[in-house]
UniProtKB/TrEMBL annotation:
GO biological process: polysaccharide biosynthetic process
Protein's UniProt name: UDP-N-acetyl-D-mannosaminuronic acid dehydrogenase
SMART domains in UniProt: UDPG_MGDP_dh_C
Listed PANTHER family: UDP-N-ACETYL-D-MANNOSAMINE DEHYDROGENASE
Pfam families for the chain: UDPG_MGDP_dh, UDPG_MGDP_dh_C, UDPG_MGDP_dh_N
Taxonomic source organism: Neptunomonas japonica JAMM 1380
MF terms (GO), sorted A to Z: NAD binding; oxidoreductase activity, acting on the CH-CH group of donors, NAD or NADP as acceptor; UDP-N-acetyl-D-mannosamine dehydrogenase activity
Lineage: Bacteria, Pseudomonadati, Pseudomonadota, Gammaproteobacteria, Oceanospirillales
Residue ranges constituting the UDP-glucose/GDP-mannose dehydrogenase C-terminal domain according to the UniProt record: 320-417
């Protein structure tokens, strides 16, 4: 049984590229999003997010008629749910997963669900969410059977297949990465593998839904814990007057050591979020995972203190902040520690701030209101007495380092060496 129509619910950073790639394989794809302007943009063959080459693929599949966007779900063979799963932080330091987007997506697809359909959850989710999603569907459609009751014989197949693509490389990684496929029954997994085989060149590895959920959380927690180790080392090295970058290079000469890079903190929408889902499920047990989150979240404050101390040495501090994005060579400012640091410096009135971000044309609203300047690298290096390197963009790595020699430099990314 092949797939005539696939519906992708949520046309964001994961849903839109997935919809476009599947459509490019000649399958009819109906993209569903609650934001009318996103739907209109896509139907005009354009995109509302930034991802290299995605505009070309979307334009092509919209022109051939293989991809169409709408705000109302329609019947399909498959529903792929790719909606956000943020957390809600409370004042007492708890971080609770917010599954409301999944719940509302489920409520919207339930009325159009038909016997034989496959529902795949792609959103990164706490363990047990796929089962919850299936229970919500069953509640809305008592006329259909679901795998929690009927196993492989159920009318509807349900699986979790977490997305694992790296922003900036989404189109390549969607095709080349291996996929973990966690069906709620064997029949669910088999059908999901069939779906992913239509566009994935990597291996499709089958497990159950709970393990698939945990696999994704584990991948990002692994990275978070290892970055926290590097960030902790950087603070220790400052105290012991050791260059952490040299230290990491030396230690990494050992064949079984591979330390990640310290930085100004961990940004993005995944690594700083997903570990909290494990902590929320097992607060007593997830000790290292929780501490890593706290260590990485503390790093921007450490950098702000360093900058404040450096600025105090000058009567008229002029601080050049190099980079606002959450990582190198992208324009994504969301959940960016660099942006957070600059906003905080402005708020605290630490000195005159000059921001350099070669990947954007204008400052984000909050900074634009203040009097700070978005400047060229040359102008910033010329005017500043304190230089703070917040992102390792290629423009900064290739800059003439003699320009830094006469300034106080705080290098959170180790590009000076
Ligand atoms: N960072 C460091 N030091 C490092 C590596 C990263 O400070 O050595 C910082 C970056 O500057 C950035 C943050 O960590 O602020 C996250 O960047 P990243 O490149 O590690 O990851 P993301 O958030 O862009 O994408 C991650 C990826 N997960 C893994 O590599 C395990 C991606 O494959 C996932 O699909 C994505 O999360 C997701 O959607 O979960």
């Amino acid at each position: 049984m092949s797939f005539e129509t696939v519906s992708v619910i949520g046309l964001g950073y994961i849903g839109l590229p997935t919809a476009a790639i599947i459509a490019s394989r000649g399958i009819n794809v109906i993209g569903v999003d609650v934001v009318q302007s996103a739907v209109d943009t896509i139907n005009a063959g354009k995109i509302h997010i930034v991802e290299p080459d995605l505009d070309i693929v979307v334009r092509s599949v919209v022109t051939t008629g293989n991809l169409r966007a709408t705000t109302t779900p329609e019947p399909a063979d498959v529903f792929m749910v790719a909606v956000p799963t943020p957390f809600i932080a409370s004042n007492d330091g708890e971080h609770k997963p917010d599954l409301s987007y999944i719940e509302s997506a489920v409520k919207r697809i339930a009325p159009v669900l038909e016997k034989g359909n496959l529902v795949v959850l792609e959103s990164t989710s706490p363990v047990g969410t796929t089962e919850k999603m299936s229970a919500w569907l069953a509640e809305a459609r008592p006329d259909l059977s679901f795998p929690q009751d009927k196993g492989s014989a159920a009318d509807i197949k349900v699986a979790h297949c977490p997305e694992r693509v790296l922003p900036g490389y989404v189109l390549q990684e969607l095709v080349s990465n291996d996929r973990v496929i966690g069906g709620m029954s064997k029949a669910c997994s088999d059908r999901a593998v069939e779906l992913y085989k239509t566009f994935v060149r990597g291996e499709c590895i089958v497990t159950n839904a709970r393990t698939a959920e945990m696999a994704k959380l584990t991948e990002n927690s692994f990275r978070d814990v290892n970055i926290a180790f590097a960030n902790e080392l950087s603070v220790i090295c400052d105290k012991l007057k050791i260059n952490v970058w040299e230290l990491v290079k030396l230690a990494n000469r050992h064949p079984r050591v591979n330390i990640l890079n310290p930085g100004p903190g961990v940004g993005g929408h995944c690594i700083a979020v997903d570990p909290w889902f494990i902590v929320d499920s097992c607060p007593e047990e997830a000790k290292i995972i929780k501490q890593a989150r706290l260590t990485n979240d503390a790093k921007p404050h450490y950098v702000i203190d360093q900058i404040t101390k450096a600025a105090d040495e000058f009567k008229r501090p002029v601080i050049a902040c190099l980079g606002l994005a959450f990582k190198a060579d992208i324009d994504d400012l969301r959940e960016s520690p660099a942006l957070h640091i600059v906003e905080e410096l402005v708020k605290r009135n630490v000195g005159e701030i000059i921001a350099v971000e070669p990947n954007i044309g204008a400052l984000p609203a909050k900074l634009a209101e203040s009097e700070i300047e978005l400047s060229s690298l040359e102008n910033a290096l010329d005017k500043a007495n304190v230089i703070v390197i917040l992102v390792d963009h290629k423009e900064f790595k290739s800059a003439d380092k003699t320009q830094f020699a006469t300034k106080v430099v705080i290098d959170t990314r180790g590009i000076i060496g």
